[in-house]
Write a structure and sequence with these properties.
alpha+beta; OB fold (Dihydrolipoamide Acetyltransferase, E2P); five-stranded mixed beta barrel; 41% helix; rod-shaped
Length: 180
């Protein structure tokens, strides 16, 4: 809405008005101003959406009240009031304990995500190869142990004890492979 020079001069001559939001209906706010209830729109420059109980600063222009600012915010949640919010910066840092995004459509640059996924895939591949090699080596130790066990049949006690020690060594080596 474009204001004429006369309207601008009149607007500057009026003071700002303080009020308290008592309710919200669709995109209009009900505000209490000195024992009078008025309906106000949100000024484009007021990004913080007033809530019930919010003290606000208003201006009266061309027969309409506009909320210029929310003076204090009584709630723990800060709601930005705009159809679309675009942030243009080199970096956006969000410091919080939890982030929740509710949206019907999400679009972002996935180059970094793809890079991380490729690195994770490569590391998983290396892990899988090592795991497979450990399984093969463990199986070899199991087979050696079984062979030694079978070899003890029909042997003297002393010969069986020597082979039993070798089996224990193989078992310990197999356990080390699995634990590393």
């Amino acid at each position: 809405m474009a204001l004429s020079q006369n309207q601008i001069a009149v607007s500057y001559s009026k003071s700002f008005i303080a009020g308290e939001v008592i309710g919200v209906y669709q995109e209009h706010w009900r505000v209490l101003i000195a024992n009078e209830f008025v309906t106000a729109n949100l000024a484009a420059s007021c990004l913080v959406a007033p809530q019930k109980g919010s003290p606000v600063l208003l201006a009266y222009v061309e027969g309409q009240y506009y909320i210029l600012a929310v003076l204090t915010h009584p709630a723990k949640t800060l709601k930005l009031a705009a159809e679309k919010i675009e942030l243009a910066s080199q970096a956006l840092l969000i410091h919080n304990k939890a982030t929740e995004i509710k949206t019907n459509h999400l679009r972002f640059d996935v180059r970094r995500l793809v890079s991380l996924a490729k690195r994770a895939y490569a590391e998983f591949g290396q892990f899988w190869q090592k795991s497979h090699a450990m399984q093969v080596e463990t199986k070899q130790y199991q087979l050696k142990t079984e062979f030694l066990h079978e070899s003890t049949k029909g042997l003297s006690y002393r010969e069986a004890a020597v082979l039993s020690e070798k089996a224990k060594i193989n078992s310990v080596q197999a356990d080390k492979v699995l634990l590393n």
